[in-house]
Write a structure and sequence with these properties.
Layout lengths: L1 H19 L4 H8 L8 H20 L21 H17 L3 H9 L3 H29 L5
Helix pairs in contact: 2-4, 5-6
Amino acid sequence: MHALSVFAVGLALGLGLIVSGMTDPSKVLGFLDLAGAWDPSIAFAMAGAILIGAAGFELAERRIHSVMGGVLQLPDTRVIDRRLMLGSVTFGVGWGLAGFCPGPALVLFGDGYDKAVVFVFAMLAGMVVYETIDRFTRRRVVGIVEE
């Protein structure tokens, strides 16, 4: 049952990304082009997602377990720190350069879109590099030395 619900939610997300135009890099770049031929249509999809997400978080804060029985793990901090800012800037620059963000890129990857395939592999490589650097710096900060 859990696998079926995960599939259904993923399918709904993928279809929503397709219908909203988020999987069309030219549409995304048109949305990001504030000084040129700005296309505000994606803003409506984003506003809808924010409203639904806010309602979901409001409901989740009142619960201990998810609908499927899993433990809810909500963020326990609201601090805007350097890591959050750098991650946000990196995300925004990548989105503006490629016209993809992770969700739509995965949808297009599944469709075999060649630029999305390159993006997804670059994204995965970036995750591996980040994890490697993060582990190394945490070890140095904590003072743990591997023997």
